[in-house]
Structure formats: structure tokens, C-alpha cells
From TrEMBL:
Organism whose genome encodes this protein: Fusarium albosuccineum
PANTHER family given in the database record: PHOSPHATIDYLINOSITOL-GLYCAN BIOSYNTHESIS CLASS F PROTEIN (PTHR43157:SF31), PHOSPHATIDYLINOSITOL-GLYCAN BIOSYNTHESIS CLASS F PROTEIN-RELATED (PTHR43157)
Keyword Transmembrane: no
A Pfam cross-reference name: adh_short
Gene Ontology MF terms in the entry: oxidoreductase activity
Matches recorded under InterPro entries: NAD(P)-bd_dom_sf, SDR_fam
Keyword set, alphabetical order: Oxidoreductase
Transmembrane helix listed as a keyword: no
Gene3D superfamilies: NAD(P)-binding Rossmann-like Domain
Record protein name field: Uncharacterized protein
Amino acid sequence: MTNFDITPEERASAKAFFKRQLFREPPYTAPGQVDLAGKTAIVTGSNIGLGLECSRQLLDLGLTKLIIAVRSESKGQQAKKDLLIGRAASTIIEVWSLDLCSYDSITAFAERTKTLDRLDIVIHNAGIVKANLEINQSTGHDECTQVNYLSLALLSILLLPILKEKNTAPDVGRLVLVSSDTAAWAAFKERDSTPLLSAFDKPEYFDAAQRYWASKLLGQFFLKELAERVPSSVAVINAPNPGWCYGTGLNRENGGLILNIIKRLVGRSSAVGARALVDAAVNHGPESHGHYLEDGKPQPMAPLVYASEGDQLAKKLWKETMAELAFAKVEDIVIRLSEK
């Protein structure tokens, strides 16, 4: 394990959480510090909240072409209109359809990216919180787990070879998987189930907050396993934590007056949280590969990730994920990339 300035257990504490929220912020990358001229980026979930603000900040750094990847093209077009205000005529923003509830939509999106002249940055920001257990009719899985984990895994693996092939800059491309400190709070009661993934589809395990936290924990397991197999010479893969933010639309099904008041008192604005995503994409090189980033530096993931039990769970999850996504030949893709 990397030497951090805090233990995984300390970082997972309520004290550390409130200290981060109240007294720390992700670093701001000012125009002039980084020049993204000529580069192309994809940001998922970019019509609102963190994704929208992240897109705005990338454009402020001179990004030439932005792909807004959203489920609702009409909302994407509205975001495009907003983002183009005050921009140079040479700024290119395209709205591409991406439904993370559909494997067909994800594979079609990945296929479309092959038509790009170049691809430098992919920021997978899209995520959901569901108030109730909802089973995705096309995949048979819990929708929160589907969108926040399985679809993230599929899209990430499908885009990695394209990031490698289409990146013509001296520096390698960036794959940024937005994470959360709440992964450390997951009770993860499903851990003893075999198979593991199907346990998330059972009503007896569902709790809205716990399900979201667990989906982010699965994402940290995935980051660990993927980065061990795919070298940073293909793309730098990291996972920033934007912190608890208001104005993201993430908790629209679980909101309430008290929660919203607390979030306004303790939370960060979407613009501040989005700095973490931009920082991960433009300020960190191969040294950040496979790392969780918090307020501009590598920090420990959930304590379970570093435990022997967690290592076994990560490998079990990887095996089941490869089987679930076998239709897209994801394991073959990873094997080929591991040889780069």
C-alpha cells in the first residue's frame, strides 16, 4: 500500500469527513496553468451539477472539443447552449446520446468514439441514487449498481483502447472515474453472497444510502483491479472524490428539507467539487495511476480495499464482472491492453 499521510481508518472517520468538507477544497486549476488547446474530452452526465461545471472548467482551460455524453439529448443541448456563452467560435461542443441503463447504448457510444480524430480525456461522472430498489428490465440488475458500477466498468474498458489509439499527444490519455469518500461507509452486507453481483438485486439487502455507498466501493475495487492489469502507458486511470456537494441533482429522489439545509451548511458547491475532476484529469500523471485522489493528492480508499478480505472480494467481483460483460469481450480487451 502507498504511504499516505493518514490511515484508511482515520480517513473513513466522521471527524475526517467534516474536516475535509469544512476546511479543505480541491485545488483550482486556473487558465494559464494548463493548456488544453487541440484536445478532446468526453464527460458523462454533463448536463447538470458536477459534470456541467467540470465541462465548463475544461473549456476555460482551452479545451478544443467537448463531448457531452447524456441520456437526454434535449437537456444536453441546453447544457451546450449554456457552456458556449462567451466562448470563441472555434470551440466545439457535441451532444452524444449515452444511456447507462442500456448495454446497447454503451456499446454504440463506444463504437461512435472510434470516429473521433483524437481523444485525450474521459471523465466518467454520471451516477444515480435510487430511493427504492428498481430492477433494470434489460439487464436484470439493480439500477443503482447497474449505472454506478457495471456500466462504468463496461464503458471504461471499451474506451481504454480508443484512448490509447486516438491520443496523439506526447502525454498519455486520462480515464477519470469519479469516486466518493462514502465508499468507506458501506456496510457491504452482500459480501458473503455467491454470486456477489446478483445479491444487489435482492430486496432484503436494499437500503438507499447503503446501496449508493456500496456501488462506489465496487468502483474502488474495480479501479484497483483494472490498474493492476492495464499499465499507465495505455492511459492514466485515477478516481477523484469531489466531496459532498449540493446542486448536483444526485439526491433528487432522497432529498428533504433537513438534508438540504445540512448540505448547504456542510456541502461544497458543484463548481468547487468539479475542481477535483479537472485536477485528476490535467494535473496528475502516471504516479496517480490506480489511485483515489482527494483534495489534490492520493489518499487511501475504503479500509476494506486494503484488507485481505477486500483483496479476495475484489478478485471475485472482477471475475463476475468479466462474466457479466463477456458479450463485449471485455476480458480480451484488458488482456490485449496489459501487453502494451
